[in-house]
Amino acid sequence: KEDEGLTSSHADSYAGLQRSMHLLSIVIYGIACLLGVSGNGLVIWIAGFKMKKKTVNVVWFLNLAIADFVFTFFLPLSIAYTALGFHWPFGKLLCKLNSAVAFLNMFASVFLLTVISMDRCASIVHPVWSRKYRTTKLAYAVALVTWVAAFIISSPYLVFRDTAVNSRNNTSCYNNFALSEDYQLEETRRLWKARHKAMIIARFLFGFLLPFSVIVVCYSIVAFRLKRRRLTKSTKPFRIIIAVTTSFFLCYFPYHVFSLLEMSRTPANHELNMALYLGIPLASSLAFFNSCMNPILYVFVGQKKFRQSIILAFEGAFGEDFVLSLSSRRKSRTVSQLEIQTNS
Q: Where, by residue number, does the polypeptide cross the bilayer (predicted)?
């Protein structure tokens, strides 16, 4: 009887925590949806249509905005799903698309941030070469490859995401990793666990660990070169890139941590289950909230005059002054060396 009472107590605690976390998730999803659609839509309008001069930075930030806009545009489906007590009335196709778009956004964003860090590193190490060959045409081609890679890695969610009707006549949108309707067999459960584990590890490696390792290496090289050249004051575009990358790290790191912890979940481990009940909704909400952060960072990071127009603020954020100034310095230094050699 004591065990039954303990189990009932845990169940009541989990149910209460779930309701609180689901309500908090709805609020955060709603804010992210409103800010994300309007903010990223504004970035797409300005970067895609209002700015006459398209630079490489504009291409990078435009693609980031498109990824975040598409994701936040689908957020009302997740809001409705949570508000309806996890009943999915939108059909199997939207169930698959909603999940695939979420991970497409994650992979596309982190891949673009990796490409941006490599672009910054190349601009610092080889500024003259970058000024000659760093073109918007090449940037669009790299962005396309990035989108294709992100789609390929997120495509399994189009396969595994499925719908099922339970005994209460509620339709769930869930990950059917075993592609089966019968999970009574031990072999089916083992297949589900193996694929679930593989998906989480692949998501962590390709969506976080490997890209951020490249980002850290690239920005370490950039910092070393800047310090050696005594260029301690970076321009606004460079500060914004650092801010966007940091924002992505802080928003997605907890999500990956709890995803890895979820693999070791067992019914008997009440402390871990409680942490997951609390942590997973919060970490997921924080990851979702990242999609509305970038437009805010574009406007406010490094901003000295808050009264200037939004268009001017975005133009300053997407500028190429940092790259051009470095290449100009390298070029002028080369010319000076040639003059000295000629005079001697």
A: 26-46, 58-79, 99-118, 138-160, 200-226, 238-255, 275-301
